[in-house]
Amino acid sequence: MRQYTAQEDYVLNTVNNRDVHFLRFWFADVLGNLKSFAIVPNELERAFDIGMPIDGNCIAGFESTQECDVIAWPEASSFQILPWRPNENCVARMFCNIKTPDGESYVSDTRHILKEVLRKASKMGFIVNVKPEIEYYYFESKDNPTPLDSGSTFDLTSLDSATDLRRDTVLTLESVGIPVQKSQHEAGASQHQIDLRTQDALSMADSIVTYKMAVKEIALKHGVFASFMPKPLNDQPGSSMHLHIHLSNEEGENIFFNENDPAGYYLTDTAKQFMAGILKYANETCLVTNQYQNSYKRLISASCLPTKIGWSRDNKETMLRVPGHRPNTEDCARVEVRNPDAACNPYLALAAIINAGLAGIEEGLELEAPSEGKEQSNELAELPIELGKSIELFETSDLMRQTLGDAVFDYLIKVKKAEWHRAISEVDPYELKNYLAVL
Known about the structure:
Largest sheet: 9 strands, mixed
Oligomer: single chain
Shape: globular
Keywords: ATP-binding, Ligase, Nucleotide-binding
Domain GS catalytic: 110-439
GO biological process, one term: glutamine biosynthetic process
GO molecular function: ATP binding; glutamine synthetase activity
Domain GS beta-grasp: 18-103
């Protein structure tokens, strides 16, 4: 029998001491939907030794490759007891690495795709750090999408009827090791936001997946329904997932920070090149960061949304922003990527954005001047405003094929073309309301 690592020993001991009866193995399909199966404790050592076989034909994006039998290998460092399950006969989870029977990383494992991009960043001397702002809505039920309140940004009154919901969710996130920075009511009726503290990119992608599950589970315990749909209501703001990103070195120093930046943005040349790469490849990454037709209804629903391919400090129309909080400190030297929404696969979205930024560094790109005013942003190119155009731009991208690999790249094109065809061919309520009686 092989020698277990310290982390594996910790998991084995905790399972025995904490009365854990079920171990859930988590992984995401290509579209970012969380998948899971459970094993009993007697199978845990076997899982650490040789993995657990699963049928890839049942998983979106896995069935597009020739290999149908795959192996789920639990990552002991991701072990957590799930606090929304009973205290007796506990349930724990671990994220899995998906491999072939020969032990090779599986081509459709999106977590592995992000790992490869981060490995590239590491070879360049960078650690990638991410802090997200994730928005979502509470509704009475999934069949009755009626908001719970009529509150707005920062409300702390009876208008914000979900205060206890947010509180319970924050406590749940912290109990599974996810550091929370702040929570608040957002601009929409019954729209909320919980911001996480900065983590390395892989840990953050895992945290985002866990965050979404926790929000939904706690909502169900309170008898309501939570949704991360980008634009669930016609007359309310859409929900985004802004991503704050910076690079650091092995000593933890922010490589983006330059206290002597003459422009006053406190950015190094490396930061500017990283931002230039994100902007250069923005059209090509958009299908990954905004993967549903509904995503584009969020982006075109108001004038202050991030549809312009440019950057600024205060112009909310640009897709990149350099926050002005805490000037002349390392905390201000980060780029906020504002177009993604939480309906994306966080592993793929981060892989796409980060690799675009790294390409900017490799190519030595020069960052264009900021677009702080309305007149300046009017001159900027725009992100695609519909899924069909986003597919076209993605389909010709050498960078995205290289980042995601042939299997995931081709699968996304196939499944998104099918979705786009359905979206433009189905009769929607707007057409019935406006045309049926008069035509």
